Amino acid sequence: MANTSNPNLWSGRFSEPVDERVKRYTASIPFDWRLAPFDIQASLAHAAMLARAGIISAQDLADIRRGLTEIQAEIDNGSFAWNLDDEDVHFNIERALTRKIGEAGKRLHTGRSRNDQVATDVRLWLRDAIDRIQALLRDARLALVDQAERHAATVMPGFTHLQAAQPVTFGHHLMAWQEMLRRDAERLADCRRRVNRLPLGAAALAGTSFPIDREFVARELGFEGLCENSLDAVSDRDFAIEFLACGALVMMHLSRMAEELVLWMTPRFAFIELPDRFCTGSSIMPQKKNPDVPELMRGKSGRMYGHLMALLTLMKAQPLAYNKDNQEDKEPLFDAVDTLIDTLAIFTELVRGLRVNAEAMRRAAVEGYATATDLADYLVKRGVPFRTAHEACAQAVRAAEARGCDLADLSLEELRAFAPQIEADVYQVLTLEGSIAARRHPGGTAPAAVRAAIARVRQELA
Ligand code: ARG
């Protein structure tokens, strides 16, 4: 980054140049250059409004448009020289504009301040980021739905306390993940409505004496409404905090899923295999295939929570209106979006590449006596009080355990010793398929219910 000794745009009232370390400390250009396309977009809308209101001439507007378009092209092709002396993205672009077009460049900032400018840029940037994240959430949900469809009838043990509890289908499990991401998408859509409001017009804090047209600028920039109070418009970053809270929930969900992937691919479970391109080896233990990617997905939730805490803390003691503290909103926000985008994209690939070991899943369900509850329910349906049935089934499980067999391997006589109400039809409920098929209500694990859920989500995402 160039470091020339140009006087600052605000240095008129200062008697000595700013300290070098302070210059580096206060500059945001090393990171806020990422706002540039949105800064230019907002400046174009502001300039168009100034011209319509007769505050600048049509010629000024034409010059500003030409200059900003050239600057955008230079940024795109990498030839634009960002300058630390120009502090932030707003000054860098404004000074480059004035170098190109002269006087008209100096008129662009009429009726505006960097305070409402930066608030506008961040909102435009974040709105775009939300839209990209929403597209990735959709991809992830579709990948889950596709795998769920393939495994709508694949039996696995469902767990409570990480102990085999009742049989479920793998498709049902994947659709549970899908539900988490669906709520995340809803939350982000709601957050977007509050992000999508125009701060410009608030100027430094008190508004402006120029006859501005805020509605026009809002329409030009695709905002749904105005920030209704100038002090609030330039100061609060609650919209960014809200986004980070949504992001923290997304990462929390992905971290839970990653944790299950890690468990499932240990040889102890051996439920799944991940494609080699998502795994790494050990430098010392030749037999290892490590789940580094899901582990990182789990680990990166931590930085996301950190960013949320950072912005909450940044905001909590700020008096109205703008304070420079707010410059610190950007790095956490940028990193949060980068993390979400990469994690979601990789997660989708992972889900699509997943290979399922249906045999190992089924074996684990059998070994876990996952149909014991079905036996209890069977007895209840024949008039046995639930607590009595529960006790009889517990004894049956102990007997099967002692023999090292499944409940379904016990003979009818053996079973009737625990509860005389048991008949030959008991074997229908003792099988994994019988247990699963019985749960066919909406939200249940029966293949038919899972397929219905899949159809609903496909329709929603179409
Ligand atoms: N770079 C600043 C930020 O990110 C722009 C606004 C600066 N305004 C000011 N009065 N110092 O917040």
Question: What do you see in this structure?
Answer:
By secondary structure, the chain is mainly alpha-helical. It has 3 domains: 94 residues, Fumarase/aspartase (N-terminal domain) (Fumarase C, Chain B, domain 1, Orthogonal Bundle); 248 residues, Fumarase/aspartase (Central domain) (Fumarase C, Chain A, domain 2), CATH 1.20.200.10; 96 residues, Fumarase/aspartase (C-terminal domain) (Ribonucleotide Reductase Protein R1, domain 1, Orthogonal Bundle), CATH 1.10.40.30. Helices cover 63% and strands 5% of the residues. The strands form 3 sheets. The chain has a two-stranded antiparallel sheet. It has a two-stranded parallel ribbon with strand order 3-4. β3, α9 and β4 form a beta-alpha-beta unit. α7 packs antiparallel against α20. The longest helix has 37 residues. The radius of gyration is 31 Å and the shape is elongated. Bound molecules: arginine. The site of arginine (ARG) has 10 residues, from α7. The site of arginine has 10 residues, from α7.
